[in-house]
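Write out this protein's structure.
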Amino acid sequence: MTAELFFQLFHQYGLILVCAVIFCEYMNLPGFPAGVIMPSIGVLIAQSELSLWLTIALSVVFGVLGSLVIYGLCYWGGEPIMEKLFGKSEKFRSFVRRCHEYIDAQHGRGLALCRIIPVLRTIVSIPAGLIRMPVKWFVGWSALGIGVWNTVLISFGYFFSEKILTMVL
């Protein structure tokens, strides 16, 4: 997909496209890195008539919804799904164990902190589902962390859109 095609889609679909991209990014689908996507959304919003604050609010909602997909798969599918996806990888098992200990020790606050750490922020839904964290904790702490992360990155793109566009174009 070319940048020109993406801009055309954005102008045609606006926030619907933004919500779909954020949902996919939080499901950890390949090709949707937040460090590029979120500031780009901010740039697009700055160049349109759309609201920054509405965009941020929707980004949190769709970030949580995307995270809930992974959480739900791990909550209800648990170990069998992890076996299929990652085999018997000791590295992955160690990661899940460390995440579990951290989230457990922080009583859920650890989940919010994990949401603002690159790479870990989308993967943390896996151990949260595997340890069967209560859904209200998962949603609440995820929303807090996702809100911080998305607000910073989207706002960066929005407020520095002119500088970003002159560097890129």
